[in-house]
Amino acid sequence: MKEITKKLNGEIDRLTNKTFKFDKRIGEGWFSGVYFLKTKKIAEEKLPNNEITMQFFQKSYAVLCGTDEVIALVHTFADDPESLEIYALKDGDKISPNETVLTITGPYQSFGYLEGIIDGILSRRTSVATNVYNVVKAARISGKQKPIIFMGDRDDHYTQQAGDGYAAFIGGSTAQATHAMNEWWGKQGMGTMPHAMVQMFEGDIVAAAKAYHETYPDDDLTLLVDYNNDVIQDSLKVAREFGYTLKGVRLDTSKNMVDEFFLREPEIMGDFDPRGVNPTLIFALREALDREGFEHVQIIASGGFDEDKIKAFEQENFPVDMYGVGRNLLDNKIGFTGDNVLLNGKHEAKKGRKYQPNPRLKKVHYHLNMEMAKS
């Protein structure tokens, strides 16, 4: 994936070979509200010379994402798309409540039936980008930016992975779990072992680690250590076996489980919840590794982490080096609205809405490989 964005006389020229895999049925109206399709037909037959301006906004402070995808959509499925006038902000721009992020001007029958699809793209992509941005921001409260791994492959339909992965990248995540999540920004998926690999070796974490390292010797060796619900002992086992070759250990203890450490050391149980990945367990693991000279081994925490939990960990400077986050990054919290606000150059909108020019918008000249746009 290669994308070049440059300014020309105050406008934006976007040249891209992103392969947006649109369903060809979009052009047949399959994914559009029927009321939009009926309006398209009436406009064609009764008011063919109309010109409308459609304006898009949302109601939160957010990180915008989805504009490139929307512009490609319009240029793929609109009638005579080159005649449309499009102004837009860029993916990654910080936006305010009610700020106009996109306007499209042209005949309603050319593009109006795409309104709901545009809303959906902007809502989904901006929600994910904003969720990730907030988590990334929380992960640097302690003064050092801790990397965020986007692990949302099991939390949503697989067809969403490419777009969600790109939105996560826009939000600031630097690693994603699948190749599909990296498709639009030209990287590959990142990951080492799941619980299934340890299970294949009957719970023997050292045997599983040896098999992994022998098969993928060039990978940084980062191991999942909660399969036996004894993260400290299993971490020490692999650290003793691999020494400096071991780069990190990942804890993914279920929120319903109490690690064996607390059962061996009941006297440390205090006024806290010992289940899942918790601060006391993290501190005990860090201390155990350091005590045996494994200060270089990083600790990756995953399982139920969201913005608030990461913020709590970082405010107390708990010794976590990296966070893995999944489902909580996929919550759709931001909804976009498209309004027709100008008709034939004059203000015309439903009560409560009006044309809201935004000087930050730049005119878009978009060059799209049309043969690659439809799946």
3D architecture notes:
This protein has helices at residues 34-46, 67-77, 108-111, 115-138, 161-171, 195-200, 205-215, 231-242, 260-264, 279-291, 307-315, 370-373, and strands at 3-8, 11-16, 52-57, 62-63, 85-88, 94-95, 102-106, 148-150, 175-176, 221-224, 246-251, 298-302, 322-325, 337-343, 346-347, 362-367. α4 crosses α5. It folds into two domains: 3-128 and 333-373, nicotinate phosphoribosyltransferase (Alpha-Beta Barrel), CATH 3.20.140.10; 134-329, TIM Barrel (Alpha-Beta Barrel). It starts with a strand and ends with a helix. It contains twelve helices and 16 strands. The strands form three sheets. It has an eight-stranded mixed β-sheet. A six-stranded parallel β-sheet has the order 9-8-13-12-11-10. The chain is of the alpha/beta class and 375 residues long.
Question: Could you say which structural class the secondary elements and strand pairing correspond to?
Answer: alpha/beta
CATH homolog superfamily of the largest domain: Aldolase class I
Distance between the termini: 17 Å
Q: Segments where pLDDT lies below 50 for 5+ residues?
A: 1-17, 368-375
Envelope shape: elongated
What is the CATH class designation of the largest domain? Alpha Beta
Side by side, the strands of the main sheet go 1-2-16-5-7-3-14-15
What is the β-strand count?
16
N-to-C series of helices and strands: EEHEEHEEEHHEHEHHEHEHHEHEEEEH
Query: CATH topology of the largest domain, anyone?
Result: TIM Barrel
Proportion of residues in β-strands: 15-25%
Whole-number average pLDDT? 89
| Annotated CATH architecture of the largest domain | Alpha-Beta Barrel
Count of spatially separate domains = 2
Indicate the percent of residues in helices. 25-40%
Alpha plus pi helix count:
12
Task: State Rg.
Answer: 25 Å
